[in-house]
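Here is a typical sample entry:
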Amino acid sequence: MAGKMKCTVSTHRFPIGQTVRLKSRKGLSPKAAEIYRITAYLPARDNSPQYRMRNDEVAQERVTQEVDIEPTEIAPAAKAE
């Protein structure tokens, strides 16, 4: 095939539904949540995949880069059937 091909392979390390923790709380409000659930994949920024994530307990959503989060010991929420 001639021309450029767009790569469709996901480079995201964490699956949707995974619970994650922010590695650093520097610059965040003391009221900001610590644990979030990945809700969507976003395009990379500065070669780092981005995620939309949510904490339902404090009704917070945020966008963050993969380098700023780490997995937690909490298992992902089960999908409703």
